[in-house]
TrEMBL record:
<dbReference type="InterPro" id="IPR036380">
    <property type="entry name" value="Isochorismatase-like_sf"/>
</dbReference>
<protein>
    <submittedName>
        <fullName>Cysteine hydrolase</fullName>
    </submittedName>
</protein>
<dbReference type="InterPro" id="IPR000868">
    <property type="entry name" value="Isochorismatase-like_dom"/>
</dbReference>
<dbReference type="InterPro" id="IPR050272">
    <property type="entry name" value="Isochorismatase-like_hydrls"/>
</dbReference>
<dbReference type="GO" id="GO:0016787">
    <property type="term" value="F:hydrolase activity"/>
</dbReference>
<feature type="region of interest" description="Disordered">
    <location>
        <begin position="1"/>
        <end position="21"/>
    </location>
</feature>
<dbReference type="Pfam" id="PF00857">
    <property type="entry name" value="Isochorismatase"/>
</dbReference>
<keyword id="KW-0378">Hydrolase</keyword>
<feature type="domain" description="Isochorismatase-like">
    <location>
        <begin position="2"/>
        <end position="149"/>
    </location>
</feature>
Amino acid sequence: MIIDMQRGMSDPAAGERNNPNAEENIQRLLTKWRSTCWPVVHVRHISRTPGSPFWPGQPGAEFQPALVPEPKEHVVEKNIPCAFTHSGLERWLHAREIKRLVIVGVSTSNSVEATARTAGNLGFDTHVVADATFTFAKQDYAGAYRTADEVHAMSLANLEGEYAVITRADEVLLIVS
């Protein structure tokens, strides 16, 4: 499952991010999934806020060129962080008897975390690929600045064990080879 890998996420205006090689790792995983003919789900955020880079028809809402879905791949559009809410994704996965999810994309602290939490709660064997996800720096609730690496690490810690297994691209590629 590739979450929100849209052109707007690579805009420098999005702010300081971590994992500069995340896109390369996502492409490696996608290439492997396609070569084995395993199901691929692309998730795209479509904003309800006029003027957003993710507003329908804006260039930022389009998939990044290297990650454009192939015709046989499933696309889920969402308006909130969780890819399961109001999307039919759970039904689509169950209809295909898919029980294990490997999640990559952006942002770790938002849509990736929200989707992985729901997947875990729904009973899916959920894996989040730490070096194929990324997030952005932000202020915490107390107003302290947190780097993108700190935000990323905390999101992964929130997921580890209770909702998902945290792994790395090379580990996933070894398992599926």
